[in-house]
Amino acid sequence: MKNKDKTLFLRLMDDLGSNDPAHKVLDFLVIHDSDYPVDDISRHSKVEYSQTEALLKQWEQIGVVKTREIDETTHYRLNSEHFFVKEFKQYYWNLSKKITDYNFEKRKKCC
């Protein structure tokens, strides 16, 4: 995935030297607030299917994601009631706003 195609969160994680698949899956689930099957989450987050499936099953066990069955396929979405998800979403959007504001101010000063 090209840097320009990444969200601000993933660009920051790259800058910090982290290429963790969990960040990519979380990023996708925060941005796309709906339920998706594993193969869609895997494809869009660019994480191998087996890794995506393992993460989602682990997160399901601790309540971070919710599931529902559609046509015999399990769909996953973040559990917005879980304390971690609430805190992470707030962190995610605050961080994105701060990075955007910083870049905007930086551009204003240079020109």
Can you give a write-up of this model?
The protein is of the alpha+beta class and 111 residues long. It has five helices and three strands, in the order ααβααββα. A three-stranded antiparallel sheet has the order 1-3-2. β2 (65-70) and β3 (73-78) form a beta hairpin. α2 packs across α3 and α3 packs across α4. The longest helix has 28 residues, at 83-110. The two termini are 30 Å apart. 19% of the residues are buried.
Search tags:
111 residues; alpha+beta; Arc Repressor Mutant, subunit A; 61% helix; 3-stranded antiparallel beta sheet
Protein structure class = alpha+beta
Strand composition percent: 5-15%
Number of helices: 5
Strand order of the largest sheet: 1-3-2
How far is the N terminus from the C terminus?
A: 30 Å
- Kindly identify the CATH topology: Arc Repressor Mutant, subunit A
Total number of domains: 1
What is the level-2 CATH architecture name?
A: Orthogonal Bundle
Calculate Rg over CA atoms: 16 Å
| CATH C-level | Mainly Alpha
The CATH homologous superfamily is termed: Winged helix-like DNA-binding domain superfamily/Winged helix DNA-binding domain
Structure summary, number of beta strands: 3
Low-confidence stretches: none
What string gives the helices and strands in order?
HHEHHEEH
Tell the overall outline.
elongated
Helical fraction equals 55-70%
Q: The biggest beta sheet, please?
A: 3 strands, antiparallel
Mean pLDDT over all positions? 88
How is the secondary structure organized here?
Layout: H1 8-15, H2 21-31, E1 36-37, H3 38-45, H4 49-61, E2 65-70, E3 73-78, H5 83-110
Antiparallel strand pairs: 1-3, 2-3
